[in-house]
Each structure stands twice: as C-alpha cells, then as structure tokens.
Amino acid sequence: MTRMHELLEKYPVGKVSYLTSSLMSPVYQVTASAPVNIACIKYWGKRDTTLILPTNSSLSVTLSQDNLRSTTTSRSSSSFEKTRLWLNGVEEVIKPGARLDRCLAELRRMRKENVEDKDPSVPKLSTWNLHIASYNNFPTAAGLASSASGFAALTASVAALYGLNAFPQHPSSSYSPPADASQLSLIARQGSGSACRSLFGGFVAWEMGKDSNGRDSLAIQVAPESHWPSLHALICVVNSGKKGTSSTAGMQETVLTSELLKSRIKDVVPSRMSSITQAILAKDFDSFAKITMQDSNQFHAVCLDTFPPIFYLNDVSRAIIAIITELNRVSVEATGHLVAAYTFDAGPNAVIYTESENIKTIIQLLLNYFPIDFAASPFNDSFQLFGVGHPSAAPFPKGFNENVSRVWEKDSIKGLIHTKIGDGPRVLGEEESLLNVEGIPKTLA
Amino acid sequence: MTRMHELLEKYPVGKVSYLTSSLMSPVYQVTASAPVNIACIKYWGKRDTTLILPTNSSLSVTLSQDNLRSTTTSRSSSSFEKTRLWLNGVEEVIKPGARLDRCLAELRRMRKENVEDKDPSVPKLSTWNLHIASYNNFPTAAGLASSASGFAALTASVAALYGLNAFPQHPSSSYSPPADASQLSLIARQGSGSACRSLFGGFVAWEMGKDSNGRDSLAIQVAPESHWPSLHALICVVNSGKKGTSSTAGMQETVLTSELLKSRIKDVVPSRMSSITQAILAKDFDSFAKITMQDSNQFHAVCLDTFPPIFYLNDVSRAIIAIITELNRVSVEATGHLVAAYTFDAGPNAVIYTESENIKTIIQLLLNYFPIDFAASPFNDSFQLFGVGHPSAAPFPKGFNENVSRVWEKDSIKGLIHTKIGDGPRVLGEEESLLNVEGIPKTLA
C-alpha cells in the first residue's frame, strides 16, 4: 500500500495530507483526470452567457481517458499566498469574476456549506488558497476541445479535495459515477458548458433546464460505457491553415444572427434528444449514426447561416463526409445497415463513431485518399489492429465509388487516434501529482 | 434597311418568312437572345416537380446579354418531318412529356388559342414542326446555369415566332418588357424554374403563387435595369475538382430531408422578399447586399442540412467570402457602408455585386490572393478599367487584415467576368440566325 493509500484510509477519500520539512502547515491535495467528450447532439448557443445556460439540450459520448485526458492536481494549503493555476506548465492569470474564478468560488461555497458548517472539526479549506496544475495529454494542435476535459478534471479534483465527491479510483471493476456528479456538473458547466458532460462516462445528456438561475441545467448519464462497450471512435486530425472562430464567440454570433437556429432549438433538437436516447438504450447503431451525422450537419448549417458566416469544415472535412457517406451507401445496399457516423465540432477534425470491428476497414479506406506519414505522426495502435508496421490502405469495398473524393496531398489528415467509449473522472494516485513539494508544476522545477 | 427589316414591316414583329429554291413551303423564323440571372433570394425546392412550382418566392438580378447570353433560333416549316433541337451544335432527344416537350406544347396551345383561332388567315404554325438551335456564349465550364437563359431564349423566340409576344429589338432606347412577359414566364418556368426570371431585365421576382395548377407562379419585374444602372457584377469562376450534385436532384433531397428548409420557407423568405424589394426600390445597397449575402449563406446552410449533405462551396469559395467580409468590415469602419455582396449558386463560383466604381478595387484585391494566368484566361475588360495590359494586384485597403485568407495556387480562380445589370430577351436580326437554309445549325454545315 502506497503512502497515498494509507492517507486515503485515514482521511476522507480524495484528500491527501502530508507535512514536509520545508512546509509545516498541513497540505491537502488530490489529482484527478477527466475525459474528452464528443457531442452527437451539438451544443451551440447560450441563453445566459455568465451562467452558461444553453439554448438547447445536447448529448455526447465520453471517450476513453486511456487515450485522451486532462489531468489536474489541486492542492490546498493555509500557507499559499494566493490561488494560482498552471495550464500545461504555463501560469494563467485568474481574472476575478471570470469562469475559473466562478467555478472555484462555487466549490468553496459547497465546501463551506456542505462540509465545514456541518463538521467544525474539518480544516477550513474553503478559506485557503489553491495551487492547481492541469495538463492535457493531447497536443492543442490536435484541435480537440480541451476546455471540457480540463474544467471537468479541475472540478473533479477540487470536489474530491473538498470532500464533496468521491469520484472512483481507477482501475475499478465497478465504476459508477458518484451520486452527486450531476450537482458538480452545475459547477463544471460554469467553467465551460460542455465540461459538464465530461463528469460522466458513457452517454451523457446535458439537459438545458428552464430555471434562470441555472439550477436545472445539468448533465445526467443516459447509459454507462458498459452498456455499449463495442462503440469505438476514430479521430481524424485534419490540417487546418488558420485558426477558426472560437466557439464561445461563434455561438453567440449564431444566436444573434441566425434565423434557422431558432427552428433548430424549437423544432429539431427536442425530438432528436429523445430519438437518440432511445437509439442508445436499444444499441440501435443505424439510428444513432443517422441522428449523429444529421446533427453535425445541422450545427455546421447554422454556423453558415450566421452573419458573417462561420465555417469550420474545410475541403478535407467534406471529403471525409463524402467517403463515409459512400461507405454507408455500399453497406446499406449489402446489409441494410450503416457502418459509421461522422461528427465535427468547431473545427475541421472528424470523429468517426463505429463498432470496434469496423475501425480497421475505415482506416484502410481513408488511407486510399489521405496518405499519412506515420513515421512523423505515429499511430498508437492501442487495440492491436495492425500488428507490427504502420497501417496502410486496402482495396476498396465492393461496389464503392472511388470517385467520391480525390487523393489528397500527404498529411492532409495529419494523424489518426483510435479510442473507445470511456468512463468519467478518476481520482489518481499521488504518483500522478503534477505539483512538486513546493506547490509548483513539476515540469517547471 | 435589311431584308429582315423589310419582312418585319410586312409581318408581325418577330416573324420572318422566306422561300428558297430548295424548299418551296413557307418558313417562319425568329432568333432571340436571353440573359443569365443570378438570384439574391435563392430558389431551392419544388412543391410540384412537374409544373415546377417552388416552395418559396425568389428574386434575381438580370445580367447583361452583352457579356453572357443564350441565343436561340426557332424555325417553323410545314415541311419539317419532326421537331428537332440542337444545343451548342449537339442534337438533343426531345422526350415526350419532358420539360422541353411541355414548353413547346404550351406555346403551340397559346398560338392556336390566342392567334389561329382568332384569325383564320394566319398560317397554322401550331401544327407544324420546329427546328430549334440554341447556343450559349459562355463555356459550360464557367459553371453558370445555362438552363435559365436557354429556356428563356427558347420561350422568347418561339413566342415571337408564334406572334404571341413582341420582345423588343435591340438596341433600343426605350426597352421595356412586353405586357405579357409574365404570362410567358409561366411557360419558361416549366422548362427550368429560374428561366422565368430571365424573361425580364433588371430586378425580377418569381412569385411562388398558391394555385396547384401553377397559374400564379410567375415572374414580375420589380425594377427595370435603368433604375440602378450602376449595379455591376464580377463573376469569379472557381476551379472545381468534381461535378457537384445537380440542382434539380439536390433541391428535392433538401425538401425531403432538411428540417431547417421548412423554417426558411415559412419564417425567413417572405420577409426577405419584401425587405430586398424595398432595398432595390430605394437603391439601398447596404440592405440589398446584406440580404443577398445572408440568403446565399442560408441556401448553402439548408444544403448542408440535407441528408446526406450537399456541398457547393469549397475552400476557395470560403476564402472569397472571407475577403469580401473583411473588405466590408473595413469599409463600414471607414464610411459606414458595405462595398460588395457575394452570392453563390449551386457551385463554387462567386458572383459579387457592387457599384461600378468598386469593381477595379475588388479585382485588384482578389488578385493578391488568387493569381490568375490572364494569358490563358483573358479578362474581357468591357468597361475599360485597366487600359492596356492585364489586371494586377494592388496594395491592400487601409486597415485590411491580410490574414483572412492564404495566397492560393495559381488559377484557383480561373477567370473573372465583369458585367452589369441588363435587359430582358431581345429579338435579333436575321443575320444572327443559328440555322442554315436547310434548317440545321450553321456550325454543323
């Protein structure tokens, strides 16, 4: 048993205390990781930009932390002179009243009301400053939204530190989200809307709610990852010439200028939320895939209906859509079923959902159109599809119309990431701490 | 006075009769030309695919025939054994019941009812076969819809031949559309929906109508070309890798699968039709431009909301949008006014509307991003903007953010066409006939 595990037995789960020779005041610390989530029903538009209340409900799949994760160490000490945060080793300014500050204030309030006011013997962590270090194991250049996993990891680590919540240790044979994860999702939501969905594994709905105070705008788990473990995802990292419109700014431009968004919110999303939930519960891939693709298309349609228009898809994204559309056409003809579903967030990268057995075929198909220099961008073959050597193209499926796309310049897709559906935030061992004994990121020490 | 003018005095305008040694039966013939039109409020979706009744009203600008036109010669002879049609010198099969056949049947019916039944002395042209030759003076590769100008020229020439209508000769100092052009637009519409708008010059609305028989789905002139003669257009012919979805097929896919189209039809287009009409009547370029850009964006948005999605814009189209958006931003900052409006039909080509004085600046701006080999694609400088030599790039306008687009490979835009707002169909002189004395296209003789 590690020292951390001893301490975990002594203190409530998630709190670690130690003394060092240089620092005599008590120190509490938790490190947690949280997953990336990719929406099938997209979040685009806020009705309240401060509380981050959305104009429509959304639904996502949580991707495995074994492949993509944010890790956050939060340390509380009475000796810290101010609260500080480092993101990927770079210190960020914590602006009073801004998102991060608001999240931390909410967590402190919950610590005080739910823990300290009830048990005067616990240390008054709500009054101490924090040092927080957060790290994404995927490059920003991958174009994956890191704010969702980042704010989820921050919320999970501070919540555990404050004794508000016990996200499970990992690995665990019986992982299930803590009872109050939805309550914590209210806090993560205020950091970054879609972060609320990263507090659960599996399939997660963010219910838009009705209250103007946001109390009912929270995430719930529709089904755990164990419900449909064969659901895999292939992320195609697409080379993008220039940085697109930020989603924070973009979605409010859409709210202000798109006539079609109103119809999406009112007429389309409510029935899609209910249909995709049913599809997930029935493991009906055809319906799941069709709704996912339609909703990705519609999200990009309302971006285009914004004035001036917002574009996230580029010609490579469109070629991926054409290839998956043709693959599905051939498959429906042969078997009556769809094979894959594309979805695109606020950028040109594709996420392709499919059953695990199809991932290899899809990679081999894509490589006919998109030569990738795997020596420069190694493929992490976590599921051992290809044995030794790099993945390579294979002959086209029978009846496939090769002309749906041209062959692209090398590295138009600059990398592939294969992952699967995954669990929610995990409390990690002390050895994963990102802070050194002085409370600054180890990477800086 | 030419022989044709003599004949025009002898016979109703538009009818030409002559005898030849080889062909003793009387022959009547008219040649007419018709313009291209580019919609500001887009037509996309039919409620009746046979009668070609649209799901929403639309509005277009007629471009000058001096630059882009379809020319059609229609000849009627009792000696013709069957009705034949040549398009750009290639004979087309006239399928019974198909669009062309239906148009001709309607014209024959009108000839009989409106002319022959009233005056038994006129020749029974409605019972004779026709030879028709049509020619577009712009290459199909230019990606401009030729069916609109083509069916308009056909309708205008046969209508004149049948004495149904007297489209004016050109040049004419007092061009105005004939009183029954809207009635003829009912026929052109059945050939190709947007053809009905090419029966008028200037600004033309296609009112969707309500009748299930289509009798009220017709074109009307909102304002003649003389109302706003300084309105010019710059067509950017964009290289496109592959042929996109045909508009005929595409729009019905949208009708069947896009939820957002319903909202566009019901909530958006009616008010845009009225706003842009007011903007045109007031020569309010700011409103005209904004609505035009918004409606182009929304048309492409509903294409994207189609399942599978339809894409017509490519990365070059999007770069043009970004450049015009930035040019407008800088202009609004400096003067409070927009400079230019982009619009895109079912393809990647941009049409940019602007006041004549801005065309040169826009060309010089675009050339910074899109080098064009003018030796291979000569610029027809009809308005003498550049004097001798090819157009070339000029320094960016003050405050213009150059980074809105990268610099593209040579000939990503493969040509520029500068034109202006223009008139409706013209009856041409005999010397413009596309048919030789035997009644086959001169190009084949």
Automatic annotation (TrEMBL), chains A, B:
Does the record's keyword annotation contain Disulfide bond?
A: no
| Domain Diphosphomevalonate decarboxylase-like N-terminal per the UniProt entry, residue ranges | 34-219
Stored InterPro entries: GHMP_kinase_C_sf, Mev_decarb, Mev_diP_decarb, MVD-like_N, Mvd1_C, Ribosomal_Su5_D2-typ_SF, Ribsml_uS5_D2-typ_fold_subgr
Offer an example of a GO molecular function term for this protein: ATP binding
This chain's source organism reads: Collybiopsis confluens
Protein's name according to its UniProt entry? Diphosphomevalonate decarboxylase
What reaction does this enzyme carry out catalytically? (R)-5-diphosphomevalonate + ATP = isopentenyl diphosphate + ADP + phosphate + CO2
Gene3D superfamilies according to UniProt: 3.30.230.10, GHMP kinase, C-terminal domain
Query: Which pathway or pathways does this protein act in?
Result: Isoprenoid biosynthesis; isopentenyl diphosphate biosynthesis via mevalonate pathway; isopentenyl diphosphate from (R)-mevalonate: step 3/3
Q: Which EC class, in a word? A: lyase
